Each structure stands twice: as structure tokens, then as C-alpha cells.
Amino acid sequence: MKTLIKSLVLAATMAFSAQSFAWQATDSAVPSYLENGWVGEVFTFRVPGNTVPTGCATGNEAFAVQSSHPAFKTMINLALAAYVAKRKIQVVFDPGQCIPYSGTIVTSVRMFD
């Protein structure tokens, strides 16, 4: 019984560790395009020149923040501020997690000096 529990704990730990290493970050760039969703379900923006593969049909430059994300407003504000001030951002994402016709689902947005 103890061996089974230890095995399950080890398997769960490995699964969560593998998930945390799956995230990728884009090349840093000034966002070039901003768009709201048709009914407010998503906010889309582009990071021009990104060479990090996203695994989505929309390409390596299109990213989308879902309105259900806890930091939805914060990420929109960061992208908008970077766009207006011509400051670089970096987008953290999980490869292959896509919203059709919008972009790769965003996990986090980082702004640079």
C-alpha cells in the first residue's frame, strides 16, 4: 500500500513538473496589432518577428488572452501600454494551446525596459 501511494505521489510530481517546463516565451518585441473579440471573449495582439514556434495555425506572431483568465485585464493593460509607449513585451505561452482564428493562448505577459 505504501509503495502504491509513493508511486502515485511520484507520478503526480513528475506530471506537474513536466507541465511547468512546457511553457515557452516569445522573442521580445513591441506589439504591432491589437484587437478585441467579437463579443469580448478574447483579446488578440501580435508580437512581430517572433521565431519561437507556437504550434498554432495562426502562426508564431498571433496571441490571444481569454476573458476567463484571472489576469485578463492586467495582460490587456500591459499589451496596450507597450503598444502606445513602443516598449517591448515577452509573451509566455503553452505550445499548441490555440484559439481558432485568434492565436496562441497567453499565460503571462512581461514588459521590458
In short:
The protein is an alpha+beta fold and 113 residues long.
SSE-based structural type: alpha+beta
Low-confidence stretches: 16-20
How many structural domains does the protein architecture include? 1
Supply the CATH class: Mainly Beta
Sheet with the most strands: spatial strand order:
1-5-6-4-3-2
Q: Quote the CATH topology.
A: OB fold (Dihydrolipoamide Acetyltransferase, E2P)
Which architecture would the CATH scheme give at its second level?
Answer: Beta Barrel
Shape: globular
Instruction: Give the total of beta strands.
Output: 6
Rg over C-alpha atoms, rounded to the nearest angstrom: 17 Å
Roughly what fraction of the amino acids lie in strands? 25-35%
- Average pLDDT for all residues: 85
Number of helices: 2
Biggest sheet record: 6 strands, mixed
H/E element sequence:
HEEEEHEE
Helical content band: 25-40%
Give the CA-CA distance, first to last residue: 54 Å
Question: What does this protein structure show overall?
Answer:
Mean pLDDT is 85; it is low at 16-20. A six-stranded mixed β-sheet has the order 1-5-6-4-3-2. The chain is 31% helix and 32% strand. The chain has a single domain, classed as OB fold (Dihydrolipoamide Acetyltransferase, E2P) (Beta Barrel). It has two helices and six strands, in the order H-E-E-E-E-H-E-E. By secondary structure, the protein is an alpha+beta fold. The chain has helices at 2-22, 72-85, and strands spanning 24-25, 33-36, 42-46, 62-66, 89-99, 103-111.
